[in-house]
Amino acid sequence: MAPNFYRPADIVAEAVIPPETGSIISSEAKEAAPSHDRRNSVSHQVAEIIGDNRLMDGISVRSPTYMTQFFNSWRSSLTDTLEKARNTIDEKSSIYYSHERRLTTTVANLHSDPREELLPGLTYSLVAAMSGSVLTKNKHIFARIVAPLALGTMCFSYVLPVTSSNTFDLMFDLEHKAFPRFAQGQLTLFANCKHAVRTTVAASEETSKAISGSLTKAAHLIKEWTGLNV
């Protein structure tokens, strides 16, 4: 029979671990208790500093109460701070992504007609604005400011009609939110101008009809009196 060099280890018999029914002998450290004895009094003071002796899974552990309370308080404070910081970051990130999404959607909605060529149109508008600046180089400061804006805006409205309309609507919405009274004044002025134009057109049509009727009557009278076909 071959020798067995790998014998099975009996960890209970070799006292590696205590048996289930065995007893655990505590260390010689004694629980501090108040006493009139000076030695016990010193032991009590030491126990208050380093903590009471407790057996946890066969291991003697000392945990001072003040240190446990300190770390619990510190851990709670740190956890609350981190939680507030995380909530703040989430809130700010949500606001940022909301504004970013709104901005990208607004910019995408400005160029809603794919038939309009955006880059050439903007180039033409820029050239028109620069032409206005060149034409009013030696003019009054008011003309040098108004001319480039007017020419650039008119060119922008001509070459990119849908994009310019969307842009003007967006600018008016922003103006209405920031300056509601000024925007309302613009609406009132626009309505008055529109009404004046309609009144002028209607009056012009009536005047034209009246003049045309008078000319027709005059031609008819001349024809009757003179026999001439006017």
UniProtKB/TrEMBL annotation:
Pfam families: ApoO. GO terms for cellular component: MICOS complex; mitochondrial crista junction. Keywords: Membrane, Mitochondrion, Mitochondrion inner membrane, Transmembrane, Transmembrane helix. GO terms for biological process: cristae formation. It is found in: Mitochondrion inner membrane. Its main location: mitochondrion. The keyword Disulfide bond does not apply. The chain crosses the membrane at residues 141-160. InterPro entries: MIC26/MIC27 (IPR019166), Mic26_fungi (IPR033181). Component of the MICOS complex, a large protein complex of the mitochondrial inner membrane that plays crucial roles in the maintenance of crista junctions, inner membrane architecture, and formation of contact sites to the outer membrane. Component of the mitochondrial contact site and cristae organizing system (MICOS) complex. This is MICOS complex subunit. It comes from Lachancea nothofagi CBS 11611.
